[in-house]
Amino acid sequence: MSATTDPVPMASPARSPGLVLLVVSAAVFLSALDLLIVNIAFPTLSAEFDASTVALSWVLNGYTIVFAALLAPAGRMADRIGRRLVFLAGLATFLAGSLGCALAWDVGSLIAFRVVQATGGAMVTATSLALLLAAFPPARRSQAIAVWSMVGGVAAALGPPIGGLLVEISWRWIFLVNIPVGIAALVVGLRVLPESRDESETRRPDFLGTVLLVLAVGLLAYGLVAAPDRGWDSGVVLGAFAGAVVAGALVGLRAARAPRGTVPVLPLALFRVRSFTLASLAMAIFMAGFAGMLLGNVLWLTGGWGFTPTQAGFALIPGPALAALTAVPAGRLGARVGCGPVAATGMTLFALGTLVWFLQVGTEPAFATEFLPGQILTGIGVGLTLTNLSAAASSSLPPAALATGTATFGAARQIGATLGVAVLLAAVAGRGGELAGAERGWLLIVCLAVTAALVALAVGRGHHADLQVVPAPVSVPAPVPSPAPAPAAEIKELR
């Protein structure tokens, strides 16, 4: 049982559940914020270090790849040695990484410290919901979960303006801002967080499989980002793609023949559940478009229209704010209409909003008439999509497989985001100037969203029951229903 899901930990409710909620929410907020806030600093970092987009892409991708790969192992380790211990260690690791990022002297050191940050962020995220469930009595858990599930949406809405304001002072402040909040959460957490563990869990994470997964995704992302400069037929690019294929194949073989006493990084049995597989695939494809859109719009506003980081940050608020506001109503709509159709509708709106930018945006700034309409459509589309794809994935699994399933689904989100940044940078790097590059990026995002919508339609209605929560604090909150056992899910003790 991973700490990323909703089975109740073996612990008595805490004496100060409100403080537990505050500590957990603060830590998860910082972790989610750092998935987003660096986007707004991308142009500034490029100028500061005189670095290429290939190098700088790893400031973003280094975080998301490691975060994705370590979610499940961190939850598994917490089950064995204690969720409070792993949470606090993760928060301390995240703060150490944040300080290192703020003190970075070149791109290489910044990437290295981002990996440290991601390690801590995965440990915090993997244990956060289980700690809340241990702290609150059953009658109050739904309220705590509702607050927890909103944290990602708040981080998404506040990330651009906070990042823009801080970058105007110094890009280093986007990392230093984590320190006082994190230290306060760490000090209070030492006093109030209850300890809990799964006494029946004796297996250990498959760290070799985790390394292979990081290698596979990293090589693929590198090949995509490097191709425009080096050439798609260059030895380095072809070698990266070949290495990604080999590493990916080894991940599959390792998962199929995991050593006794370990939990494979890729739970193959889950993918025998058709709706889970389709929902995960749709999410990965959609997140590629979504992450590409987040970075591409920053690059366009600051480069094409010449906005300052602060102006760009505030200009980007409407999209994530609308996504957060529509997430819960979208879940209720999915309960009536079905997860797949509502998610497909959201992706279609997202594609239409991006198409508006492709067709309308010109070289002269016209935010209200050319950019804002697309933001409204994409924001609502994200809210409809993330909520219902998450619900479709979780509700297709039996309770015994829910922990592993949600961790796997969360990893699919992050891997999709990683590849989205890579393909976006490859698309905008061509000839024709800023606007031509932005248009190629927007057209790519439209294609990804339409493809994801077609996959989502194949998911079908899903088993959507009463809304609760999705354990995936990325970008926007995503409520999830209580899972109904899937009749076709022949899964043995996937915990």
TrEMBL record:
Keywords, comma-separated and alphabetical: Cell membrane, Membrane, Transmembrane, Transmembrane helix, Transport
UniProt domain Major facilitator superfamily (MFS) profile: residue ranges: 20-464
Topology in the lipid bilayer: Multi-pass membrane protein
Pfam families linked: MFS_1
Entry's transmembrane regions: 19-42, 54-73, 85-105, 111-133, 145-167, 173-193, 205-225, 237-256, 276-300, 312-330, 337-359, 371-389, 401-429, 441-459
Gene Ontology molecular function terms on file: transmembrane transporter activity
Main location: membrane
NCBIfam families to which the protein is assigned, alphabetical: efflux_EmrB
Name this protein carries in UniProt: Drug resistance transporter, EmrB/QacA subfamily
Source organism: Blastococcus aurantiacus
